[in-house]
Amino acid sequence: MFSYRHAFHAGNHADVLKHTVWLAILERLMQKDKGLMLVDTHAGAGVYALKGEAASTSGEAEHGIAALLNHDGDLPDPLQRYVEVLQAFNAGKSHITHYPGSPALSAQLLREQDQLQVFEVHPTDQRHLRNWAQNHAAAKRIRMHQADGFAGTKSLLPPPTRRGALLCDPSYELKSDYAHVAQWLQDGLLRFATGVFAIWIPQIARLEANELPRRLRTIAQKAQKPWLHALLQVRGHNSTAPGGGLSGSSMFIVNPTFELHEQLQSTLPLLVKALGQDDHARFELTRG
Ligand code: SAM
């Protein structure tokens, strides 16, 4: 049984990076009317109470979304939109008490012509996710799968409209997740060559984690698809961690949306400034 619970990490610096990138992708894709299929392979619980027991125990959101909201001054467009979507999710309040996980963020933007497919394997998070999905105004367009998101994606591709985006956000609790992510991308591109594939990668001292961006680059290059890699490191790897053990993370995107690179060029320096915890805070943005 998995022990990872996203409730302890909701709204941390990794969520801020991942969800800002994901929203920027969705908003660009939604500039066209044709319906989209959104796939969330590792959905989590859906919504998280920031004052709930798990989030309060870890304090990670304090150094993530709370630090961003406390930042003085203008935000670049993608971050401004992210904050607006969070505020809309909290009924227009500037004070954010509930943090929307990736399925809830996607659902916030979902149009009549779109559909959202979410996968989750943990029984507790499945229960929360099901409650959230069933009570959502767009419930009819949200399909929940109590199944492995890596394997389950295959039968969904390509989407009927041939338009879609996929978020792959494993907890990497299992060493095999790294190989599964690479295989998932390779299989996904064979079935849906024009899809936008967004993958979250932790920055941790583990060979498989260090090698994953290179493996994904090779897969994208062999498929002759453009890719983009955005990394946000908030502190040195060895410094003690206020609010969580992760020093950084990255998003690897294949078939990035138009101007995503430019959007991240303005976003990442601000994130370093707002969320950076020591002199080692930095970003990297590469593409091919
Ligand atoms: N994507 C969510 C978000 O941004 O709000 C967070 C997801 S969390 C990092 C990873 C989730 O994947 C956990 O809830 C875990 O139970 C679930 N999980 C682990 N292995 C899975 C698998 N093979 N298929 C689907 N879900 C899985």
Quick summary:
The chain has 288 residues and is α/β, with parallel strands linked by helices. The protein has ten helices and ten strands.
What does this structure look like?
The protein is α/β, with parallel strands linked by helices and 288 residues long. It has a single domain, classed as Rossmann fold, CATH 3.40.50.150. The protein has helices spanning 13-29, 53-58, 65-69, 77-89, 102-109, 123-134, 149-153, 176-191, 207-222, 260-275, and strands at 37-40, 47-49, 98-100, 115-119, 142-145, 164-168, 196-202, 227-233, 248-254, 282-287. An eight-stranded mixed β-sheet has the order 5-4-1-6-7-9-8-10, with helices on both faces. Helix 8 links the parallel strand 6 and strand 7. The radius of gyration is 17 Å and the shape is globular.
Strand content: 15-25%
- The string of secondary-structure elements, in order, is HEEHHHEHEHEHEHEHEEHE
Bound molecules: S-adenosylmethionine
* CATH architectural label: 3-Layer(aba) Sandwich
General form:
globular
Mean pLDDT: 95
Uncertain regions spanning at least 5 consecutive residues: none
Q: Total strand count, please?
A: 10
CATH topology: Rossmann fold
Radius of gyration (CA) equals 17 Å
**CATH superfamily, please?**
Vaccinia Virus protein VP39
Measure the end-to-end span: 38 Å
Q: Give a quick account of the main beta sheet: strands, pairing sense, barrel closure.
A: 8 strands, mixed
* Strand arrangement across the biggest beta sheet: 5-4-1-6-7-9-8-10
